[in-house]
Amino acid sequence: MSQANRRSLWTFTVLLALTLAAAAALSIWGREEAAPASSDAAVPASANWGLSFQNEGQAPAGNASREDLAKYGAYFLGDTSKKVLYLTFDCGYENGYTGQILDALKKHRAPAAFFVVGHMVESAPDIVCRMAEEGHIVGNHTFHHPDMSAISDESAFRTELESLAERYEETTGKPLSRFYRPPQGKYSEENLRQAQALGYHTVFWSLAYVDWNTDDQPTAQQAYDKLLPRIHDGAIVLLHSTSRTNAEILDDLLTKWEAMGYTFASLEELPGV
Predict the structure, then answer these.
(1) Whole-angstrom Cα distance, residue 113 to residue 265?
(2) pLDDT in tens, 69-96
(3) Where in the sequence numbering do the catalytic residues fall?
């Protein structure tokens, strides 16, 4: 098989895997209310990250508490004593919108974190380099975007993270940041321990919406209806860089959040990092 054919097969395989992962993630990102969660929830042995929004404008409860996550250097909320937001983007592949997203962030001088996979680094190196050059965090979303909660072998877990970090450094000449987001939000207590042992902070989220389905993008109003009432102090916001809607509304969305009194902070400013 020629190198071009191998590259095409690799691209097809990765995109298929990401599409299937997005479909599976509907239960995580698409539900109005996640599985029952409480502020004192302990870290489960294995779970999909879930949220329960109880009061408009207030932080949701996660299916693991802030205190228990903190034992593993993990977060789903930032500093809830301040009107500050932490913007994060999951980047499975380049869909033509990341440049527009970067433009909006630059206009608002808003730092963000982009969680990338191997395919994004290999297929869109210029975009990934721009993320770093403009001062954004580039985080680890694993090389192949697997269900990490199904990986109990420590060496296999380490390989997924380290192979991405190595490819990123080869591409940009810079070390990858030590922030990690589990693909699809699937995690286990053992995963949290393993990530911590490798020097990573695991980062979940406290606000997201169904923006990942490129064949059924929400309207701007549908996005605002989710992202404005539920915003809260210390929110870690998850958006997808593949979303046309996100690219089109981000400038205005950031303006609206600023009008509500919010500022934007880097994950490096999370309490305890």
Answers:
(1) 10
(2) 999 999 999 999 999 999 999 999 999 9
(3) 90, 240
